[in-house]
Task: inverse folding
C-alpha cells in the first residue's frame, strides 16, 4: 500500500496549498475518514450503455467502488465509492447556450479527475462552465460523505459532508457541512456550514442559514473525527441492506418493471414497493414500501420509505422521504430530509418546490398546500409560517422578502421561472415524458445498462491500486 499512501499524501498537500488563505488542513479529515486498509477492500465497476460514448483510462489510481458511465480519464485520483455519471456529456458539434451566447463545442467532452479524493460522492457531469466546454475537471479536491457535486467542476476545494455544489464552478473554496451553493462561480470563499444560497447575477439571491443547534443534531464535522449526526445514523442503519446487493453478481429485479421504467441494478428495494411507467430509480437509491407514480424519479442516494409519490415527482440526489404523500409534480431538492411518522404524516400539495437541504422532521401531522416554496427547518404548522411562501406571493416580489432567517432579493418571478424550467428539464432528461417512441431519457436508456468489475492489485507496494488500462468502444 506504499504507493497508495504516497498518492494520498500528494492529494492532501495539493489541497492544503490551494486553501492556504484559510489556513485549512485537509489531513485530519481525510486520514480519519478513509484509512488506507479500507480502500483496498473494494472492487471497482463501471457501467456502459449503447447510447453513451465510453473511453475509460486510469493511471496510478485507486477507484474503490464507482461507476462512470461515459468518457473518463483518471490520472492520479482516489475515487472512493463514487458515482461519476457522465451520461450528459456534451458532444462535438453541440451548441452551448449561455447568457445569450451560442458557443460551439469543438470536441467530445470528457471527465478528467486528477489528484482528487471523493468519498461516497456523486458527480453528475453536465458542466455549466462556459469557459471549458470540452473537459469536466475535478482536481486537488476532497469531497466528504454524501456530498453532491452536480454540474460543478471543482479545483483546489474542500466540500463538507452532505454539502452540495450545484451548477457552480468552485475554485479554492471551503464548502461547510450541509451547505448548498448554486451561484455560477465561486472562488476563494469559505461557506459556513448550513448555508443554503441560490444566486443568479442581476436576477435573484436566496439565502438561509441553519442554526448551530440544528446542525449539531443532524450533521456536523470536526477535524480528526468522523461526521456525526442523525443523517449519518439514518444511512448507517440501512448500510447492510446495500451490502447484500453489492455482494451478488447476478441479481433479478425484486419487483415488476413496467414499460419505459428503469430500476438500477445497484438500487435496493424491499417491502411492498411499486414503480410506474417511465420511473427512474437510480444507483444506490433505496425504496421501502414506496409507490412511485408515472414519470417520478428517485435519483442517486435517495431514500423513499413508506411513502407515495403520485407522478412526475423529482427527488434529487440524496433526498429522503419517509412517511409522506407527495402529489403530482413536487420537486424535492438535493439532500432534503422529509420525515413524517405513522402518527404525524406529511402531505405535500401539487407543484410544490421543496428547496435543497430542507429538513422537515415532524412532531405533528402537516399538510403543505399546493404551489408553495418550502425551505429551512420545519417541525410543525407554526414553523411553516416562516419557512414557506406561496408561489403566487413570491412571484410578486420585485425587490426583497424576509421570512424568519430567509432573505430574498431580486425578482421572485425570475426565481420561480428558473426553478420551473429546471424541473421540466430534469423530468425530460430522466425520460418522464417518453411516449413509447419519442422523448427517451435516462429511465429508458438505463434499461440497457451493464456493469463490468475490475480488481485492484492484491499484494505488494501497489496493493489497492488498479492496473493502468485503456478501454475504448
Result:
Amino acid at each position: 500500500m506504499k504507493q497508495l499512501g504516497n498518492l494520498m499524501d500528494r492529494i492532501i498537500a495539493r489541497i492544503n496549498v490551494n486553501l492556504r488563505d484559510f489556513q485549512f488542513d485537509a489531513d485530519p479529515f481525510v486520514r480519519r475518514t478513509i484509512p488506507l486498509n479500507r480502500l483496498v477492500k473494494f472492487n471497482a465497476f463501471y457501467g456502459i450503455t449503447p447510447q453513451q460514448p465510453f473511453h475509460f483510462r486510469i493511471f496510478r489510481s485507486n477507484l474503490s467502488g464507482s461507476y462512470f458511465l461515459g468518457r473518463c480519464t483518471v490520472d492520479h485520483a482516489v475515487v472512493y465509492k463514487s458515482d461519476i455519471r457522465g451520461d450528459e456529456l456534451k458532444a462535438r458539434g453541440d451548441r452551448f447556450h449561455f447568457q445569450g451566447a451560442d458557443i460551439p463545442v469543438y470536441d467530445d467532452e470528457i471527465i478528467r479527475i486528477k489528484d482528487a479524493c471523493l468519498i461516497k460522492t456523486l458527480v453528475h457531469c453536465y458542466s455549466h462552465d462556459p469557459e471549458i466546454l470540452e473537459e469536466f475537471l475535478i482536481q486537488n479536491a476532497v469531497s466528504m460523505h454524501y456530498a453532491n457535486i452536480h454540474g460543478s467542476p471543482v479545483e483546489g476545494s474542500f466540500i463538507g459532508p452532505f454539502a452540495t455544489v450545484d451548477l457552480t464552478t468552485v475554485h479554492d473554496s471551503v464548502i461547510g457541512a450541509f451547505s448548498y451553493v448554486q451561484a455560477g462561480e465561486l472562488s476563494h470563499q469559505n461557506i459556513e456550514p448550513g448555508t443554503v444560497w441560490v444566486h443568479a447575477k442581476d436576477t435573484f439571491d436566496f439565502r438561509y442559514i441553519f442554526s448551530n443547534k440544528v446542525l449539531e443534531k443532524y450533521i456536523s464535522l470536526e477535524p480528526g473525527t468522523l461526521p456525526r449526526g442523525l443523517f449519518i445514523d439514518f444511512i448507517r442503519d440501512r448500510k447492510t441492506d446495500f451490502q447484500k446487493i453489492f455482494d451478488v453478481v447476478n441479481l433479478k429485479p425484486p419487483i415488476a418493471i413496467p414499460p419505459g421504467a428503469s430500476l438500477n441494478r445497484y438500487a435496493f428495494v424491499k417491502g411492498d414497493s411499486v414503480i410506474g411507467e417511465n420511473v427512474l430509480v437510480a444507483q444506490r437509491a433505496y425504496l421501502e414500501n414506496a409507490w412511485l407514480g408515472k414519470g417520478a424519479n428517485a435519483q442517486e442516494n435517495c431514500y423513499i420509505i413508506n411513502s407515495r409519490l403520485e407522478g412526475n415527482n423529482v427527488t434529487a440526489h440524496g433526498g429522503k422521504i419517509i412517511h409522506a404523500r407527495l402529489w403530482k409534480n413536487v420537486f424535492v431538492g438535493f439532500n432534503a430530509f422529509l420525515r413524517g411518522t405513522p402518527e404525524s404524516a406529511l402531505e405535500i400539495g401539487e407543484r410544490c418546490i421543496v428547496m435543497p437541504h430542507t429538513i422537515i422532521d415532524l412532531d405533528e401531522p402537516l399538510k403543505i398546500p399546493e404551489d408553495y416554496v418550502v425551505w429551512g427547518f420545519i417541525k410543525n404548522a407554526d414553523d411553516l409560517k416562516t419557512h414557506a411562501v406561496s408561489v403566487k406571493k413570491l412571484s410578486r416580489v420585485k425587490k426583497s422578502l424576509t421570512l424568519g432567517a430567509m432573505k430574498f432579493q431580486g425578482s421572485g418571478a425570475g426565481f420561480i421561472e428558473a426553478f420551473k424550467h429546471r424541473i421540466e428539464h430534469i423530468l425530460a432528461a430522466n425520460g418522464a415524458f417518453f411516449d413509447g417512441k419519442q422523448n427517451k431519457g435516462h429511465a429508458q436508456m438505463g434499461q440497457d445498462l451493464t456493469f463490468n468489475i475490475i480488481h485492484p492489485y492484491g499484494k505488494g507496494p501497489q496493493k489497492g491500486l488498479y492496473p493502468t488500462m485503456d478501454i475504448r468502444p
Summary: The CA atoms of residues 138 and 420 lie 29 Å apart. Residues 2-231+449-471 form a domain with the UDP N-Acetylglucosamine Acyltransferase; domain 1 fold (CATH 2.160.10.10). The radius of gyration is 21 Å. The mean pLDDT is 89.
